[in-house]
Amino acid sequence: MIEFPPELIRYLTKASRVAVLTGAGVSQESGLRTFRDAQSGLWAQYKPEDLATPRAFARDPKLVWDWYAFRREATKGARPNAGHYALVEMEKNIPEFTLITQNVDGLHRMAGSKNILELHGNILNVRCSECGMFAETWGNDLEFVPRCEYCNGLLRPDVIWFEESLPRDQLEAAVQATRTCQVFFSIGTSGVVHPAAALASAAKAEGSVVIEVNAEPTPLTSKVDFALHGKSGEILPELVKAIWKSGM
Ligand code: APR
């Protein structure tokens, strides 16, 4: 049983506007590797920063395509964990709840969260790198990167790469939710990749209560009001139970 500071419980019980930012850590207990975890197997020799960029795709589209195909397969086998479901429960109890995620694994949606902003896209979708059309299906031909049926451009994962700008509408909605919330959670993110990493500071500047739930301290830890260190799949269900005493 986790003991939470009484003032944290009080803030959340009274809150009607909450914004949550999640990162790869919230999917770690679903068996998905985080970005700062060392890569494994044949991908151990690469850093995500060297693969998830437009230049890497231009230089070697097949290498980048294969990395995402590998990650897509891992994602397909993953299921939401107790942390994802606790956030679904939280959304049911908070009138204005916005879930902003950097994750591309689609697990928040699978768990049942409704108001989601996928800042970095979704790995299960594929679009043309030229005309932007979404591809319903694509060959699993291991020889070549599949091509667009409309313009013959190379297909690419529908995720935001380093050096690419985030979808404007999603980012604007995330900033708006961050600015108007009373409580802001930063969950399972190392808080190093902008602009997502700036949201917590923006919330703090607007007078929100900022809560970090993360396995280890981050650059954000010293600035938050409450730092809950541990596994999100353990902390979040306990927090929801402590406040809404639902049938968690
Ligand atoms: N519960 C809570 N936190 C966890 C857990 C867990 N079970 N497991 C790991 N963590 C924490 C780690 O301690 C780390 O601080 O989650 C954080 C994950 O950080 P990153 O691996 O950097 O992932 P993230 O912050 O989502 O990366 C942001 O960077 O690579 C880009 O676009 C990519 O969306 C990604 C962005």
Characterise the protein shown here.
It is a single chain. The chain contains 9 helices and 9 strands. It has 248 residues and is an alpha/beta fold. It has 2 domains: 148 residues, Rossmann fold (3-Layer(aba) Sandwich); 68 residues, 2-Layer Sandwich (SIR2/SIRT2 'Small Domain'), CATH 3.30.1600.10. It is elongated, with a radius of gyration of 19 Å. It binds adenosine-5-diphosphoribose. The site of adenosine-5-diphosphoribose has 22 residues, from helix 9.
Helices, by number, come to 9
The class by helix and strand makeup works out as alpha/beta
Strand order of the largest sheet: 3-2-1-7-8-9
- Poorly predicted spans: none
CATH fold category name of the largest domain: Rossmann fold
Succession of helices and strands: HEHHHHEHEEEEHEHEEH
Strand content: 15-25%
CATH class of the largest domain: Alpha Beta
Instruction: Summarize model confidence as the mean pLDDT.
Output: 93
Gap between N and C termini? 13 Å
The fourth-level CATH homologous superfamily of the largest domain is: TPP-binding domain
Query: Which ligands occur here?
Result: adenosine-5-diphosphoribose
The total count of strands amounts to 9
**Whole-number total of structural domains:** 2
CATH architecture of the largest domain: 3-Layer(aba) Sandwich
